[in-house]
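Sample intake — Cell division cycle, cofactor of APC complex-like
Collected from: Olea europaea subsp. europaea
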Amino acid sequence: MVKIAELTGHTSRVLFMVQIQDGCTVASAAGDKTLRSWNVFGTPEPAKPAPKTNSEPFGHKNIR
């Protein structure tokens, strides 16, 4: 494990941290009676649609 960033903002020690369901944000609660949210993982890219596939077996072959 390597430290890649230091989040500053609380004036007292952090008592609790949790990752929010969006997968990008972390919330923290500290002894200074504040809650903070941190966008630590960036904004997620929109999901790309899956490519269409031919459901027929050998549908891509020309059989004569």
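Post-analysis note: The first strand starts at residue 14 and ends at 19.
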